[in-house]
Amino acid sequence: MRDIALRAGCSVSTVSRALRGNPRISREVRGRVGEVAAELGYRCDENASRLMSGFRAKARGEGPAPEVVALIHAQDCRYQTEDRLGFWSALTSAGEALGLEVNEFVLDPDDPGPSGRRLSRVLQHRGIRGAVLFPFYQPDIRRWELDWDAFSLVAVGSSPEHPTIDRVDLSDYEDAMLCLGEIAARGYRRIGLTSSTRSELHTGGVFVAAYHYFMETHPEIEPCPVLRLTGRSQSLTPNDRPAFESWFREHRPDAIVTSRHEVREWLAGMGLSVPGDIGLATLWPEKDWAGIAFESSGLMRPALEWLRAKLWSHKTGPGDPAQRLLVRSPWREGETLRRAEG
Length: 342
Known about the structure:
alpha/beta; Rossmann fold; six-stranded parallel beta sheet; five-stranded parallel beta sheet; 13 strands
Protein backbone atom coordinates (compact mmCIF):
# COMPACT_ATOMS: atom_id res chain seq x y z
CA MET A 1 0.00 0.00 0.00
CA ARG A 2 2.98 2.32 0.59
CA ASP A 3 4.07 1.79 -3.03
CA ILE A 4 0.60 2.83 -4.23
CA ALA A 5 0.72 5.93 -2.00
CA LEU A 6 4.12 6.96 -3.31
CA ARG A 7 3.13 6.57 -6.97
CA ALA A 8 -0.31 8.17 -6.51
CA GLY A 9 1.11 11.07 -4.50
CA CYS A 10 -1.02 10.67 -1.39
CA SER A 11 -0.89 9.19 2.10
CA VAL A 12 -1.28 5.53 2.98
CA SER A 13 -4.49 6.32 4.89
CA THR A 14 -5.91 8.05 1.80
CA VAL A 15 -5.05 4.99 -0.30
CA SER A 16 -6.80 2.75 2.23
CA ARG A 17 -9.93 4.90 2.20
CA ALA A 18 -9.90 5.24 -1.60
CA LEU A 19 -9.69 1.48 -2.12
CA ARG A 20 -12.69 1.02 0.18
CA GLY A 21 -14.67 3.57 -1.87
CA ASN A 22 -14.92 6.12 0.95
CA PRO A 23 -17.08 9.00 -0.42
CA ARG A 24 -14.96 11.53 1.50
CA ILE A 25 -12.16 10.81 -0.94
CA SER A 26 -12.73 12.61 -4.24
CA ARG A 27 -13.66 10.63 -7.32
CA GLU A 28 -10.48 11.84 -9.03
CA VAL A 29 -8.26 10.53 -6.23
CA ARG A 30 -10.16 7.24 -6.00
CA GLY A 31 -9.73 6.79 -9.74
CA ARG A 32 -6.01 7.56 -9.62
CA VAL A 33 -5.45 5.21 -6.69
CA GLY A 34 -7.42 2.47 -8.43
CA GLU A 35 -5.38 2.80 -11.61
CA VAL A 36 -2.08 2.64 -9.71
CA ALA A 37 -3.32 -0.33 -7.68
CA ALA A 38 -4.24 -2.14 -10.91
CA GLU A 39 -0.82 -1.40 -12.43
CA LEU A 40 0.91 -2.79 -9.33
CA GLY A 41 -1.33 -5.85 -9.21
CA TYR A 42 -2.72 -4.94 -5.79
CA ARG A 43 -5.88 -6.71 -4.68
CA CYS A 44 -7.77 -5.82 -1.52
CA ASP A 45 -7.90 -8.43 1.25
CA GLU A 46 -11.68 -8.46 1.72
CA ASN A 47 -11.63 -10.44 4.95
CA ALA A 48 -9.11 -8.14 6.61
CA SER A 49 -10.96 -5.08 5.35
CA ARG A 50 -14.28 -6.24 6.78
CA LEU A 51 -12.65 -7.22 10.07
CA MET A 52 -11.00 -3.81 10.47
CA SER A 53 -14.23 -2.03 9.53
CA GLY A 54 -16.00 -3.99 12.24
CA PHE A 55 -13.35 -3.07 14.81
CA ARG A 56 -13.58 0.61 13.90
CA ALA A 57 -17.39 0.62 14.06
CA LYS A 58 -17.30 -1.12 17.45
CA ALA A 59 -14.78 1.41 18.78
CA ARG A 60 -17.17 4.21 17.75
CA GLY A 61 -20.06 2.53 19.50
CA GLU A 62 -21.79 1.75 16.20
CA GLY A 63 -23.12 -1.44 14.71
CA PRO A 64 -21.11 -3.30 12.07
CA ALA A 65 -20.66 -1.38 8.85
CA PRO A 66 -22.84 -2.68 5.99
CA GLU A 67 -21.07 -4.63 3.27
CA VAL A 68 -21.23 -2.93 -0.11
CA VAL A 69 -22.64 -4.99 -2.99
CA ALA A 70 -23.10 -3.99 -6.62
CA LEU A 71 -26.18 -3.71 -8.79
CA ILE A 72 -24.87 -4.17 -12.33
CA HIS A 73 -26.71 -3.52 -15.58
CA ALA A 74 -26.20 -2.01 -19.03
CA GLN A 75 -29.45 -0.05 -19.36
CA ASP A 76 -29.64 3.54 -20.56
CA CYS A 77 -31.54 4.52 -17.42
CA ARG A 78 -30.29 4.60 -13.84
CA TYR A 79 -32.55 2.94 -11.32
CA GLN A 80 -31.54 5.45 -8.65
CA THR A 81 -33.29 8.20 -10.62
CA GLU A 82 -35.79 6.27 -12.77
CA ASP A 83 -37.55 3.85 -10.44
CA ARG A 84 -41.09 3.71 -11.82
CA LEU A 85 -41.77 0.16 -10.63
CA GLY A 86 -39.90 0.53 -7.36
CA PHE A 87 -37.04 -1.90 -8.06
CA TRP A 88 -34.31 0.37 -6.68
CA SER A 89 -36.24 1.33 -3.55
CA ALA A 90 -37.10 -2.33 -2.92
CA LEU A 91 -33.46 -3.35 -3.39
CA THR A 92 -32.03 -0.65 -1.13
CA SER A 93 -34.68 -1.20 1.56
CA ALA A 94 -33.98 -4.92 1.60
CA GLY A 95 -30.24 -4.22 1.71
CA GLU A 96 -30.64 -1.92 4.70
CA ALA A 97 -32.57 -4.62 6.57
CA LEU A 98 -29.96 -7.26 5.70
CA GLY A 99 -26.82 -5.25 6.46
CA LEU A 100 -25.93 -4.63 2.81
CA GLU A 101 -25.36 -1.34 1.01
CA VAL A 102 -26.28 -1.45 -2.68
CA ASN A 103 -24.27 0.67 -5.15
CA GLU A 104 -25.35 0.94 -8.80
CA PHE A 105 -22.82 0.34 -11.59
CA VAL A 106 -23.75 0.85 -15.25
CA LEU A 107 -21.77 -0.75 -18.06
CA ASP A 108 -21.36 0.92 -21.43
CA PRO A 109 -24.10 -0.76 -23.54
CA ASP A 110 -22.13 0.00 -26.73
CA ASP A 111 -18.88 -1.48 -25.41
CA PRO A 112 -19.86 -4.10 -22.80
CA GLY A 113 -16.75 -6.27 -23.08
CA PRO A 114 -14.02 -3.79 -22.11
CA SER A 115 -16.51 -2.04 -19.82
CA GLY A 116 -17.05 -5.31 -17.95
CA ARG A 117 -13.33 -5.89 -17.56
CA ARG A 118 -12.83 -2.38 -16.19
CA LEU A 119 -15.71 -2.77 -13.78
CA SER A 120 -14.30 -6.07 -12.49
CA ARG A 121 -11.08 -4.28 -11.54
CA VAL A 122 -12.97 -1.42 -9.91
CA LEU A 123 -15.08 -3.76 -7.80
CA GLN A 124 -12.09 -5.80 -6.70
CA HIS A 125 -10.09 -2.72 -5.76
CA ARG A 126 -13.01 -1.45 -3.69
CA GLY A 127 -13.34 -4.79 -1.93
CA ILE A 128 -16.84 -5.41 -3.36
CA ARG A 129 -17.37 -9.17 -3.35
CA GLY A 130 -21.00 -9.56 -4.44
CA ALA A 131 -23.29 -8.39 -7.22
CA VAL A 132 -26.93 -8.47 -8.26
CA LEU A 133 -27.47 -8.60 -12.03
CA PHE A 134 -30.76 -6.97 -13.00
CA PRO A 135 -32.39 -7.16 -15.42
CA PHE A 136 -30.82 -10.45 -16.42
CA TYR A 137 -32.45 -10.86 -19.84
CA GLN A 138 -30.23 -8.26 -21.51
CA PRO A 139 -28.98 -10.00 -24.67
CA ASP A 140 -25.53 -8.38 -24.45
CA ILE A 141 -24.84 -9.96 -21.07
CA ARG A 142 -22.91 -12.71 -22.85
CA ARG A 143 -20.42 -10.03 -23.97
CA TRP A 144 -19.94 -8.29 -20.64
CA GLU A 145 -16.61 -10.00 -19.87
CA LEU A 146 -16.97 -9.55 -16.14
CA ASP A 147 -14.65 -11.70 -14.06
CA TRP A 148 -17.57 -13.94 -13.15
CA ASP A 149 -15.52 -16.26 -10.96
CA ALA A 150 -14.34 -13.40 -8.72
CA PHE A 151 -17.74 -12.49 -7.27
CA SER A 152 -20.74 -13.92 -5.47
CA LEU A 153 -23.59 -13.49 -7.94
CA VAL A 154 -27.38 -13.55 -7.99
CA ALA A 155 -29.47 -12.47 -10.97
CA VAL A 156 -33.04 -11.20 -11.05
CA GLY A 157 -35.23 -11.88 -14.06
CA SER A 158 -35.44 -14.17 -17.06
CA SER A 159 -32.19 -15.85 -17.98
CA PRO A 160 -30.05 -16.39 -21.08
CA GLU A 161 -28.40 -19.80 -21.34
CA HIS A 162 -25.02 -18.34 -20.42
CA PRO A 163 -23.66 -17.36 -18.00
CA THR A 164 -25.33 -19.91 -15.71
CA ILE A 165 -25.99 -17.67 -12.72
CA ASP A 166 -28.39 -18.48 -9.88
CA ARG A 167 -31.43 -16.25 -10.14
CA VAL A 168 -34.72 -15.12 -8.67
CA ASP A 169 -37.57 -14.73 -11.13
CA LEU A 170 -41.33 -14.45 -11.39
CA SER A 171 -43.15 -17.74 -11.72
CA ASP A 172 -44.46 -16.78 -15.14
CA TYR A 173 -46.21 -20.07 -15.89
CA GLU A 174 -48.17 -20.07 -12.62
CA ASP A 175 -48.94 -16.36 -13.00
CA ALA A 176 -50.35 -16.94 -16.49
CA MET A 177 -52.46 -19.86 -15.27
CA LEU A 178 -53.80 -17.71 -12.43
CA CYS A 179 -54.66 -14.93 -14.87
CA LEU A 180 -56.47 -17.26 -17.28
CA GLY A 181 -58.37 -18.91 -14.44
CA GLU A 182 -59.57 -15.56 -13.11
CA ILE A 183 -60.77 -14.55 -16.58
CA ALA A 184 -62.66 -17.82 -17.08
CA ALA A 185 -64.28 -17.46 -13.63
CA ARG A 186 -65.87 -14.23 -14.83
CA GLY A 187 -67.71 -15.99 -17.64
CA TYR A 188 -65.47 -15.11 -20.59
CA ARG A 189 -65.45 -17.93 -23.12
CA ARG A 190 -63.19 -16.82 -25.98
CA ILE A 191 -59.83 -15.70 -24.61
CA GLY A 192 -56.97 -14.35 -26.70
CA LEU A 193 -53.29 -13.81 -25.87
CA THR A 194 -50.74 -11.33 -27.24
CA SER A 195 -47.05 -12.19 -27.16
CA SER A 196 -43.82 -11.35 -29.00
CA THR A 197 -40.81 -13.27 -30.23
CA ARG A 198 -38.58 -11.20 -27.95
CA SER A 199 -40.71 -11.96 -24.90
CA GLU A 200 -40.71 -15.66 -25.71
CA LEU A 201 -36.92 -15.61 -26.09
CA HIS A 202 -36.58 -14.10 -22.60
CA THR A 203 -39.10 -16.35 -20.87
CA GLY A 204 -38.72 -19.59 -22.80
CA GLY A 205 -42.25 -19.18 -24.16
CA VAL A 206 -43.88 -19.97 -20.80
CA PHE A 207 -46.87 -17.64 -21.30
CA VAL A 208 -47.73 -19.31 -24.60
CA ALA A 209 -47.18 -22.76 -23.08
CA ALA A 210 -49.51 -21.92 -20.17
CA TYR A 211 -52.12 -20.59 -22.60
CA HIS A 212 -52.13 -23.76 -24.71
CA TYR A 213 -52.25 -26.02 -21.65
CA PHE A 214 -55.09 -24.02 -20.14
CA MET A 215 -57.08 -24.32 -23.37
CA GLU A 216 -56.48 -28.07 -23.52
CA THR A 217 -57.69 -28.56 -19.96
CA HIS A 218 -60.67 -26.18 -20.23
CA PRO A 219 -62.66 -27.34 -23.26
CA GLU A 220 -65.45 -24.89 -22.41
CA ILE A 221 -63.07 -22.04 -23.37
CA GLU A 222 -62.57 -21.35 -27.08
CA PRO A 223 -58.94 -20.49 -27.99
CA CYS A 224 -57.67 -17.93 -30.48
CA PRO A 225 -54.38 -18.03 -32.37
CA VAL A 226 -51.68 -16.25 -30.34
CA LEU A 227 -50.99 -12.76 -31.68
CA ARG A 228 -47.28 -11.94 -31.79
CA LEU A 229 -46.65 -8.21 -31.82
CA THR A 230 -43.26 -7.10 -33.06
CA GLY A 231 -42.54 -4.18 -30.70
CA ARG A 232 -40.20 -4.43 -27.74
CA SER A 233 -41.42 -4.24 -24.15
CA GLN A 234 -41.23 -0.43 -24.03
CA SER A 235 -41.99 0.44 -27.65
CA LEU A 236 -44.14 -0.50 -30.61
CA THR A 237 -43.60 -0.67 -34.35
CA PRO A 238 -45.97 0.86 -36.92
CA ASN A 239 -47.19 -2.63 -37.86
CA ASP A 240 -48.40 -3.57 -34.39
CA ARG A 241 -51.69 -1.67 -34.29
CA PRO A 242 -52.98 -2.77 -37.73
CA ALA A 243 -51.86 -6.35 -36.96
CA PHE A 244 -53.86 -6.25 -33.72
CA GLU A 245 -56.96 -4.80 -35.36
CA SER A 246 -56.86 -7.40 -38.14
CA TRP A 247 -56.40 -10.23 -35.61
CA PHE A 248 -59.23 -8.95 -33.45
CA ARG A 249 -61.72 -8.60 -36.30
CA GLU A 250 -60.94 -12.12 -37.55
CA HIS A 251 -61.03 -13.96 -34.22
CA ARG A 252 -63.32 -11.80 -32.03
CA PRO A 253 -62.08 -12.68 -28.54
CA ASP A 254 -64.26 -11.57 -25.63
CA ALA A 255 -61.19 -11.19 -23.36
CA ILE A 256 -57.48 -10.68 -23.97
CA VAL A 257 -54.44 -11.44 -21.82
CA THR A 258 -51.66 -8.99 -22.69
CA SER A 259 -48.69 -7.03 -21.40
CA ARG A 260 -49.20 -4.38 -24.09
CA HIS A 261 -51.33 -1.76 -22.41
CA GLU A 262 -51.78 0.22 -25.65
CA VAL A 263 -54.33 -2.43 -26.58
CA ARG A 264 -56.93 -0.61 -24.48
CA GLU A 265 -56.51 2.54 -26.56
CA TRP A 266 -56.65 0.57 -29.80
CA LEU A 267 -59.93 -1.04 -28.78
CA ALA A 268 -61.38 2.37 -27.93
CA GLY A 269 -60.34 3.52 -31.40
CA MET A 270 -62.36 0.61 -32.81
CA GLY A 271 -65.45 1.80 -30.92
CA LEU A 272 -65.24 -0.90 -28.21
CA SER A 273 -65.54 -0.30 -24.49
CA VAL A 274 -63.59 -2.04 -21.71
CA PRO A 275 -64.91 -4.07 -19.96
CA GLY A 276 -68.37 -3.57 -21.49
CA ASP A 277 -67.56 -5.07 -24.90
CA ILE A 278 -64.32 -6.87 -24.08
CA GLY A 279 -62.27 -7.72 -21.01
CA LEU A 280 -58.54 -7.15 -20.58
CA ALA A 281 -56.08 -8.64 -18.10
CA THR A 282 -52.40 -7.83 -17.76
CA LEU A 283 -49.35 -10.00 -17.06
CA TRP A 284 -47.35 -6.87 -16.13
CA PRO A 285 -48.66 -4.44 -13.48
CA GLU A 286 -50.47 -1.37 -14.77
CA LYS A 287 -52.62 1.17 -12.97
CA ASP A 288 -56.37 0.38 -13.00
CA TRP A 289 -55.86 -2.90 -14.86
CA ALA A 290 -57.00 -6.28 -13.58
CA GLY A 291 -54.29 -8.91 -13.63
CA ILE A 292 -50.96 -9.93 -12.15
CA ALA A 293 -49.58 -7.50 -9.57
CA PHE A 294 -46.17 -8.62 -8.38
CA GLU A 295 -44.36 -6.59 -5.73
CA SER A 296 -40.78 -5.50 -6.44
CA SER A 297 -39.80 -6.41 -2.89
CA GLY A 298 -40.94 -9.98 -3.57
CA LEU A 299 -38.05 -10.30 -6.02
CA MET A 300 -35.38 -8.11 -4.48
CA ARG A 301 -35.55 -9.28 -0.87
CA PRO A 302 -34.99 -12.99 -1.66
CA ALA A 303 -32.27 -12.06 -4.17
CA LEU A 304 -30.31 -10.17 -1.51
CA GLU A 305 -30.91 -12.88 1.10
CA TRP A 306 -29.44 -15.40 -1.34
CA LEU A 307 -26.52 -13.11 -2.14
CA ARG A 308 -25.78 -12.56 1.55
CA ALA A 309 -25.72 -16.33 2.13
CA LYS A 310 -23.24 -16.70 -0.73
CA LEU A 311 -21.04 -13.96 0.71
CA TRP A 312 -21.00 -15.62 4.10
CA SER A 313 -20.09 -18.99 2.59
CA HIS A 314 -17.58 -17.46 0.09
CA LYS A 315 -19.42 -19.03 -2.84
CA THR A 316 -18.41 -17.30 -6.07
CA GLY A 317 -18.90 -17.66 -9.79
CA PRO A 318 -21.71 -19.08 -11.95
CA GLY A 319 -23.73 -22.07 -10.76
CA ASP A 320 -23.30 -25.47 -12.36
CA PRO A 321 -26.12 -26.01 -12.93
CA ALA A 322 -27.75 -22.68 -12.11
CA GLN A 323 -30.54 -22.68 -9.54
CA ARG A 324 -33.79 -20.73 -9.75
CA LEU A 325 -36.11 -19.36 -7.09
CA LEU A 326 -39.55 -18.65 -8.56
CA VAL A 327 -41.85 -16.13 -6.90
CA ARG A 328 -45.61 -16.32 -7.46
CA SER A 329 -47.57 -13.10 -7.95
CA PRO A 330 -50.92 -12.13 -6.44
CA TRP A 331 -54.04 -11.29 -8.44
CA ARG A 332 -55.33 -7.71 -8.41
CA GLU A 333 -58.85 -6.64 -9.31
CA GLY A 334 -59.19 -3.75 -11.75
CA GLU A 335 -61.57 -1.89 -14.01
CA THR A 336 -60.64 -3.80 -17.19
CA LEU A 337 -62.53 -7.01 -16.32
CA ARG A 338 -66.04 -7.51 -15.05
CA ARG A 339 -66.22 -8.83 -11.52
CA ALA A 340 -66.66 -12.51 -10.79
CA GLU A 341 -70.22 -13.44 -9.84
CA GLY A 342 -70.82 -14.20 -6.19
